[in-house]
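In the design runs reported in the main text, the only information available to the sequence generator was the tokenized backbone. The following block is the verbatim input for one such run; it is reproduced so that readers can re-run the procedure and compare outputs position by position.
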């Protein structure tokens, strides 16, 4: 039985997408696979347990028969870190992890263990990624976002932390490489990793569609009010614009899939959005994926009725335009249980861009 610890050089480099792809790929190879995220930070409450979102996703996608509480044994709620500093209890954390692993490891050939951020994350409460990987006897795969200099430097730093803890490195995956730079980066990072004595398991191209959130995800994440078009909340925001200019200028920025943020009292821009949606290049979807009315302003009921008839999801918030647009720009899209299209894309990316023979050699060696 093999244990793989999937870590990353920083947050949002693609640990979850890598785990999805690896799980699917290993299954296709005939391996029995299970998943665990020993320490989770983004969680939901289910049946009285705090369960990491990634564990919920993996169970949903692959039909894991392991109970969710075992797939996500330790959740880190707000305030936990500060409390732990003054009341250390390392044994309690690892006891929960060990009890979960007894259930996860049953009838499996490979257990995929997802980390949280870079190798040192969790050190403050005695459960860094490197320490957990060592405790579980796992080999580490390091995921890093595409680049050359900083990418290889950060991999070397994380490698040092893992190796100091006694964790062997199975290999490296370079993720999110821009297509226009793919050939150059692919060649350079492979040589750079070879210079460091690290196997490059694969170089994954960047797919913009994986970063597009649905309007529902935006509404739920930022706790926005839905005013109209709730049937269309699963449309994806392919781009975001702030419509604070004159309407004749606004319309030139609208493309298919545009999510428009505009003050709720800018009736001129609201009407322009309706018009752009109705006469969009793709009538089945419309040009506007959604509209967010900022400032707490709700338009006159005659305008609201037009919005309801236009089949456009319309959201509202009390925050000013700048504040809410900043939050949306910073919103990091994670794959959820309703993103079956993204899951399929991710699994295909991993299958098509990983060196399967090298992966198995590194895992079994």
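Verbatim output:
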């Amino acid at each position: 039985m093999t244990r793989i610890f999937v870590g990353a050089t920083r947050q949002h480099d693609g640990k979850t997408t890598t785990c999805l792809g690896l799980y699917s790929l290993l299954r296709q190879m005939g391996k029995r696979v299970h998943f665990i995220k020993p320490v989770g930070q983004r969680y939901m409450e289910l049946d009285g347990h705090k369960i990491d979102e990634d564990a919920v996703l993996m169970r949903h996608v692959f039909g894991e028969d392991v109970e969710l509480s075992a797939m996500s044994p330790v959740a880190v709620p707000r305030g936990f870190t500060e409390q732990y500093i003054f009341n250390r209890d390392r044994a309690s954390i690892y006891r929960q992890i060990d009890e979960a692993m007894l259930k996860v490891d049953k009838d499996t050939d490979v257990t995929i263990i997802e980390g949280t951020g870079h190798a040192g994350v969790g050190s403050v409460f005695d459960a860094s990624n490197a320490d957990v990987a060592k405790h579980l006897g796992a080999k580490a795969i390091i995921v890093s976002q595409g680049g050359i200099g900083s990418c290889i430097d950060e991999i070397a730093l994380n490698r040092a932390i893992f190796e100091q803890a006694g964790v062997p490195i199975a290999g490296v995956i370079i993720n999110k490489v821009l297509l226009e730079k793919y050939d150059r980066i692919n060649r350079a990072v492979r040589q750079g990793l070879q210079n460091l004595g690290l196997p490059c398991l694969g170089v994954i191209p960047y797919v913009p569609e994986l970063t597009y959130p649905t309007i529902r995800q935006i509404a739920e994440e930022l706790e926005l009010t839905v005013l109209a078009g709730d049937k269309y909340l699963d449309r994806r925001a392919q781009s975001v614009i702030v419509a604070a200019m004159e309407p004749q200028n606004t319309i030139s920025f609208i493309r298919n899939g545009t999510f428009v943020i505009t003050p709720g009292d800018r009736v001129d821009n609201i009407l322009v959005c309706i018009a752009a949606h109705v006469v969009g290049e793709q009538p089945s979807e419309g040009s506007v994926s959604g509209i967010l009315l900022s400032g707490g302003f709700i338009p006159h009921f005659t305008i609201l009725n037009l919005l309801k008839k236009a089949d456009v999801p319309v959201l509202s918030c009390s925050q000013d335009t700048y504040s809410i647009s900043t939050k949306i720009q910073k919103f990091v899209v994670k794959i959820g249980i309703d993103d079956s299209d993204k899951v399929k894309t991710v699994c295909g990316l991993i299958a098509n861009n990983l060196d399967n023979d090298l992966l198995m050699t590194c895992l079994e060696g």
